[in-house]
Amino acid sequence: MSLGPFFRSPFTDLTASMVNFQQYDKCGELEMASIDCLEAYGTVRGAKKCADLLADFQECAFMTKQIARFRAMRMERHRQGWNGERKGDGYYAPPPRVDAY
Q1: Once rounded to an integer, what is the mean pLDDT over residues 47-60?
Q2: Which of 48, 83, 86, 99 shows a CA-CA span of 20 to 30 A to 21?
Q3: DSSP the chain
Q4: Which whole number is the average pLDDT over 84-88?
Q5: Under 8 Å CB-to-CB from 46, ≥6 apart: which residues?
Q6: pTM above 0.85, yes or no
């Protein structure tokens, strides 16, 4: 994840924060904490000092571990289906009742 622009100009300063996560409840606080940490230490030292905050924010934004976990569970379910361990109605879990929400 890049922490700063390759070439700085007034245009990069103008458009630096066009995309952010502040309007989303899920990642807004993590983004703000990581930006505050980077502002305190700078982008070069902050990459090492704020690595845990940046990793948490990156996971919240891109969901790489969550997607990998979903794919692993899906492949295990398919493997069980291919080997005959799951059949018919037991292939997927039953859905919740209609009035459960």
Answers
A1: 94
A2: 48
A3: ---S-SS--HHHHHSTTSS-STT-TTTHHHHHHHHHHHHHHHHHHHHHHTHHHHHHHHHHHH-HHHHHHHHHHHHHHHHHHHTTSS-GGGSSPPPPPGGG-
A4: 87
A5: 3, 37, 38, 39, 40
A6: no
